[in-house]
Inverse folding.
């Protein structure tokens, strides 16, 4: 294994420290027998590091002498209703694991916020490559390998969307029917509630989405944050997917809206400067599909006929603006000091501009 390409956590950010002693004390009394066998040696104090990729929940790596595990908790400060629900995320992954091979194994959930200041859960650590803004230099990728990586990532999303949630006993994870309407009204309300003085109102985009909601709705298990940097690759064969992370937003929803969410992060090689400056996954590489090619590939594999993808494109961009604004709102109020959030308001302007550009190009008023 080339250790130089394996994704590693970094030093814990100031103000987001984790008490390893408190976690260990809780672990001794709350792991079942099977997990205790896995966590042999966890009675010693672990080395604690933190993953920098997440802009929402806080994710830590606990390295013990004989094993490692991941701890997930919500952020400090004001939280949107229903967001950062660690118990739901834990239970959903535990239920999904038997029917979707890329879900990590869940170890334990702690509802007692007094332990570390928030509820949290512990899960399996995948040792591999996370394709963030740029792939590790040591990979020496070819165009053909990059194309294979691209299709494998898309195929893992398609595999999720093809899971029979009723047969798998997962009908309880979301409301299902009426998903499109709930998403449009919900994200419009969340954006408006988190709006700060330095971002647009977004009213034009909200009204357009409400007016142009599709009549046909498909329901499947949706991830709702499916990106390259939430995928873990085999370090011995980087085109091979070994895990999919960050299931906080997963539910029963429309698969084309899930695809729209993913494409909001997808930066083509010929996109403008602002898109390139905010790129967080390697979709610009030679061999990667363009957004249009992604839609065509996905629809062919899913046997879905879509004449116009504009609604789903605009929804994905607006939803991303809503997510970014909620994060920026916490920074604006001083509830987080992560410097990565300082200029999110510029990104929100850009996303709404992209929405309006797509609307204009569609010719649908």
């Amino acid at each position: 294994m080339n250790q130089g390409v394996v994704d590693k956590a970094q030093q814990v950010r100031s103000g987001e420290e984790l008490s390893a002693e408190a976690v260990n004390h809780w672990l001794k009394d709350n792991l079942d027998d099977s997990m205790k066998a896995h966590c042999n040696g966890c009675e010693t104090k672990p080395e604690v590091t933190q993953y920098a990729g997440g802009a929402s929940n806080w994710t830590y790596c606990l390295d013990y002498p004989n094993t490692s595990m991941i701890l997930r908790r919500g952020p400090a400060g004001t939280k949107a209703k229903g967001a950062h629900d660690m118990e739901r995320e834990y239970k959903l992954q535990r239920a999904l694991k038997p029917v979707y091979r890329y879900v990590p194994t869940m170890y334990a959930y702690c509802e007692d916020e007094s332990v570390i200041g928030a509820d949290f859960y512990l899960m399996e650590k995948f040792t591999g490559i996370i394709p963030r803004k740029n792939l590790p230099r040591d990979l020496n990728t070819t165009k053909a390998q990059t194309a294979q990586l691209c299709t494998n990532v898309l195929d893992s999303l398609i595999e999720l969307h093809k899971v029979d949630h009723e047969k798998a006993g997962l009908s309880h994870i979301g409301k299902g029917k009426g998903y499109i309407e709930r998403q449009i009204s919900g994200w419009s309300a969340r954006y408006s509630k988190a709006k700060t003085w330095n971002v647009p109102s977004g009213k034009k985009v909200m009204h357009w989405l409400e007016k142009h909601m599709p009549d046909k709705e498909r329901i499947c298990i949706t991830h709702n944050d499916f990106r390259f940097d939430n995928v873990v690759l085999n370090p011995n064969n980087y085109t091979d997917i070994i895990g999919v992370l960050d299931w906080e937003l997963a539910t029963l929803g429309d698969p084309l809206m899930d695809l729209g969410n993913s494409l909001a992060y997808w930066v083509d090689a010929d996109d403008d400067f602002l898109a390139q400056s905010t790129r967080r996954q390697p979709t610009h590489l030679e061999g990667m599909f363009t957004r249009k090619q992604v839609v065509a590939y996905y629809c062919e594999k899913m046997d879905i006929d879509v004449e116009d993808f504009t609604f789903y494109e605009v929804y994905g961009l607006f939803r991303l603006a809503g997510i970014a604004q909620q994060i920026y709102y916490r920074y604006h109020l001083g509830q987080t000091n992560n410097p990565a959030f300082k200029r999110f308001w510029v990104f929100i302007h850009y996303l709404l501009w992209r929405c309006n550009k797509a609307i204009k190009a569609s010719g649908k008023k």
About this structure: The chain is about 40% helix and 10% strand. The first strand starts at residue 47 and ends at 50.
